[in-house]
Write a structure and sequence with these properties.
Layout: E1 4-8, E2 12-14, E3 19-36, E4 39-52, E5 59-63, E6 67-72, E7 75-88, E8 92-100, E9 106-121
Antiparallel strand pairs: 1-3, 2-3, 3-8, 3-9, 4-7, 4-9, 5-6, 5-8
């Protein structure tokens, strides 16, 4: 469960779903602490909603302030899958971030239906 939020603008958050909504462009996200050991990872998220914005990547799934893992383009989604692979060369202790904007601005409503991290290789 996402525990807190961070924003610029006037978004609406629902941490139980989790979702972020805004009628005008914002940079707004829900944050969740995360710790991962070193390794190679595959991430799969599913989202629903309508994402709008002045740029193509108006929503995101990221490590807070350091790494945009998945850019979610403008569009309408119903349980749409997005995937990414990344390497954690050292243990990660950060905040997982999901929302509108993030290195940009976005509006509409985005809901995170599911998120999975799979470590498919260890690093020596």
């Amino acid at each position: 469960m996402f525990l807190s939020d961070e924003y610029w603008g006037k978004p609406t958050f629902d941490i139980t779903v989790p979702s972020v909504s805004a009628p005008v462009p914002v940079d707004a996200a829900l944050l969740k602490p995360i710790e991962l050991p070193t390794g190679k990872y595959h991430i799969k998220i599913k989202v629903s909603g309508t994402v709008e914005g002045p740029v193509a990547g108006a929503a995101h799934f990221s490590f807070h302030g350091t790494n945009k893992l998945i850019t979610i383009p403008t569009g309408k989604y119903a349980n749409q899958s997005f995937t990414a692979d990344f390497i954690a060369p050292k243990p990660i202790k950060t905040q997982l971030v999901f929302g509108l904007g993030g290195w940009s601005a976005g509006s509409g409503t985005i809901r995170l239906d599911s998120a999975t991290f799979e470590r498919f290789a260890k690093l020596d």
